[in-house]
Amino acid sequence: MQYRTISNGTTSFEVSTLCLGAMNFGTITDAVTSQQILDRFVEAGGTFVDTANNYSAWAGGHGRDSEDVLGDWIARRGGLGDVRLATKLGAAKKDPALPLQNVEPTNFQGLSAEVVAWEARESLRHLGIDRLDVLYGHVDDRETPVAETVAAFGELQREGLVGISGISNIAVWRLVEAREEALRQGVDPYGVIQQGYSYVYPSPGFGRTNDVSADLLDYVASAGVDGRPPLTITAYSPLHQGAFTRDDKPMWPAMRHASNRDRVRVLHDVAAELGATPNQVALAWLMGGEAPVIPVIGPSTVAQLEELLGAADLVLDDDVRARLDTADLDVRAPVAA
């Protein structure tokens, strides 16, 4: 296993370069299997686990199923030990009687000071711990003043309840605005941003703010200097729920374009030449770029986890990276008039 330091400029700690996503724990993945996955991940050197306060309300759960499974696991092992735990708030149901969805009306709680203060403490209670290593705002809330949200996370840090704050599903300009506001207030800025990111990329579309963009990668790579504290990307859905290797798992509609078909073909060719799997190569590609990226993997069985662990020490040489990077250039090249 390899490791990376995440930091907000004041608080820093080391985490494994693979993060275990616990979204389906306690719902789609039963509690026993979930704990077996957690045990094996830690045994293999994994030290970063990711959950949220609404996992998985859409899969027959009550919303904190994953946090509760993790709480039981933490209690069984007598504490977190070297494991760093991240959870999220703000995207649980505002009205329990209405559905939770990604299109309007979303029914998200949002990131008001009241929600941030209350939900952080509820997560601590369900997890059975007294401090969160990382706490994200789950979805950007444009109806709450950014100064209010930033101050609320800053207060949790001052109280010692949160180590590093983060944000997820946000436009780059909003991220920069929030980090600058934190510096104005004299509180630690977001040190982690979680966005959708993988070897394939979506078709352009106005309003798509949930994905890693070239601008975000450039901004993150430029951080870690005076006036611009460090920032790390955690990448969700890095394998598109198995779409790189399974015909029964099509990629999301925005990903189904000619450039990505070419990239997946090259991904398979490179994997075969390296004696690795396409999933392992895709994860290694994410971890080895110029900007610090930590993929959030979501295995539902120990066997799936074993495959993904094989990416932890897979380092792609420069020629292989260049081949993967340019796999779709012929498809994207403009046609001469």
UniProtKB/TrEMBL annotation:
InterPro entries on file: AKR_Detox_Biosynth, NAD(P)_OxRdtase_dom_sf, NADP_OxRdtase_dom
| Gene3D superfamilies assigned | NADP-dependent oxidoreductase domain
What residue stretches are annotated with the NADP-dependent oxidoreductase domain?
18-327
Which stretches are transmembrane?
none
Q: Report which superkingdom the organism of origin falls in.
A: Bacteria
Name by which UniProt lists this protein: Aldo/keto reductase
Organism the protein comes from: Microbacterium helvum
